[in-house]
Design a protein that fits this description.
Number of strands: 20
Shape: elongated
Distance between the termini: 110 Å
Helix content: 25-40%
CATH topology of one domain: Beta Polymerase, domain 2
Strand content: 15-25%
Oligomer: single chain
Radius of gyration: 34 Å
């Protein structure tokens, strides 16, 4: 063994293949001992007892490794300071009592063990300076056991399953705590204040498992990220004045009036993130701009974020509102879709201003504003052998392919060829590349599509549609005549009461 590695050593069953080399190592100088994959009764346990000055013990296994037997062979338990268990059965109380001078405990991938009981059995918990629990099943128990470690300096909790955080006041009272790391941990909003007031904390990182919020603090600068749907409750229970930056996620359409009073007087820097254009209309975007003096916002799609100047966002959203303003809320999803499809086909033909991709994005964003799911697909137009974009849409629980770009000329003639098709028909002329491509089982009723494009009426029977269209025009004329009669009344004249 090289001199630079003289104080670290790893034991496993393969080491017996070259036992002479093991015995040549100065085992009494080993300070960090790593043990992996030992069998019960292994002769290697005898080697453990020869490592007389071990300060750090790392044990990795497959949940069948007998940790107690290993701990029993530690020759000088008073010297052991750091204990790391990964994927093993935790030791019993009897085994732990031999180690009164532990400073660091790390548990990783621990399941089917009573972790709370293990933490309760740690002797001299006030000496523990570092405590880390990662990928550990807490079996529905309270985490109040952490109060025993009153002098911990570094606390890391990550991906704890079935853990209950009922009172984090002890963290606030611990003046020794210098680093707190909580990842993928579901913490009650009411407990967040204790984290914000942790004395001397230089790093806090907290995210909720349901994606509702994230709190981070580095170099005493704390940032909070939370969804707008949770914001009012959070603002009521948490002292936001201690947070220097707020990132608000708007993940659904809502009226912002209730939130403005909470946001307007915050000293914090406020950043706005929207899921897509459906979540924030032009009117509410203008409110944000005025009351928060907002200059820009971000749109996030998974891990990606796209920055928009607030004026640019408002302009785009106003354009989308013009597209959907004539779509009735009372009609079915297919009729809403066809209204938008026809409108864009007649007014947004691809040219120097609107590229094929931008037209597909306009369609997708318009549909999202109507709460209709849509995908943007990148692939190949097989007929023209070139890169191409198109959309998919979900209507009444079923997905369909459509290509507005290729259908623009058809829509000018009040018909469609690539609208609401299943994969069998559509993929004869299209080859998708994007991983977002969804399976489309069948064609939509093409008679309904073509009748709508010809008459503007959502009926399968063309003749019946014409009759209904004529009837509607007659009704419009009658309403207009009646309206003109009312408008012709003398100024100030009112109807007499019956």
């Amino acid at each position: 063994m090289e001199e630079k590695n003289a104080k670290k050593f790893e034991l496993n069953t393969k080491i017996l293949d070259n036992f002479d080399q093991v015995m040549a190592v100065k085992l009494d100088e080993i300070e960090e001992l790593k043990i992996t994959g030992l069998d019960r009764g292994s002769k290697i346990l005898n080697i453990v007892s020869l490592c007389a000055n071990v300060k750090t013990l790392i044990i990795e296994g497959d949940r069948r490794l007998h940790v107690d037997e290993i701990l029993a062979n530690i020759f000088k338990p008073d010297k052991l300071e750091n204990l790391v268990f990964q994927g093993v059965k935790l030791p019993t109380q009897k085994a732990l009592t031999r180690f009164p001078h532990l400073k660091s405990i790390c548990l990783n991938e621990i399941h089917f063990c009573n972790v709370i009981e293990f933490l309760e059995n740690v002797v001299c918990p006030e000496k523990i300076e570092t405590l880390e629990l990662s990928n550990v099943d807490m079996m529905g128990n309270s985490m109040n056991v952490l109060e025993r470690f009153s002098h911990v300096k570094e606390l890391g909790l990550e991906k704890l399953e079935n853990a209950k955080f009922e009172n984090l006041k002890f963290l606030r009272e611990n003046q020794n705590l210098s680093q707190l790391k909580l990842l993928d941990i579901e913490i009650p909003i009411g407990e967040m204040n204790h984290l914000l007031y942790c004395g001397g904390v230089k790093q806090i990182s907290i995210s909720f498992t349901d994606g509702h919020g994230k709190l981070e603090s580095a170099n005493q600068v704390t940032t909070l990220q939370i969804s707008m749907s949770e914001f009012l409750k959070f603002a009521k229970e948490v002292n936001l004045n201690r947070i220097q930056k707020l990132e608000i996620k708007i993940d659904k359409a809502l009226e912002l009036s209730d939130y403005m009073s909470k946001l307007k007087y915050q000293k914090s820097e406020v950043a706005i993130l929207v899921k897509d254009f459906s979540c924030l209309d032009a009117q509410n975007a203008k409110k944000l701009k005025k009351k928060l003096r907002l200059q820009s916002l971000q749109m996030w799609n998974g891990k990606n974020k796209i920055a928009y100047k607030i004026d640019t966002y408002i302009t785009i959203r106003e354009e989308l509102e013009k597209i959907i303003e004539n779509v009735s809320e009372e009609v079915s999803e297919p009729e809403k879709f066809l209204t938008v499809y026809q409108y864009l086909g007649k007014g947004y033909a691809p040219n120097h201003e609107y590229t094929a991709r931008s037209l597909c994005e306009i369609l997708q964003n318009s549909l999202r504003c109507l709460q209709i799911k849509s995908n943007l697909i990148m692939g190949k137009d097989l007929e023209h052998d070139q890169k191409h974009y198109w959309n998919q849409v979900e209507l009444e629980g079923k997905w369909y392919n459509l290509d507005l770009v290729l259908d623009v000329e058809n829509i000018q003639k009040n018909k469609a060829e690539y609208c609401l098709l299943g994969d069998k028909s559509f993929l004869e002329t299209h080859l998708p590349k994007s991983g977002k491509n969804t399976y489309c089982a069948e064609n939509f009723n093409q008679k309904l599509v073509n009748v709508f494009l010809k008459t503007g009426l959502y009926q399968e029977n063309l003749f019946g549609s014409y009759l209904e269209m004529i009837a509607n025009k007659i009704k419009q004329v009658l309403r207009l005549n009646r309206k003109q009669e009312v408008l012709a009344l003398p100024e100030g004249e009112e109807d007499e009461e019956e």
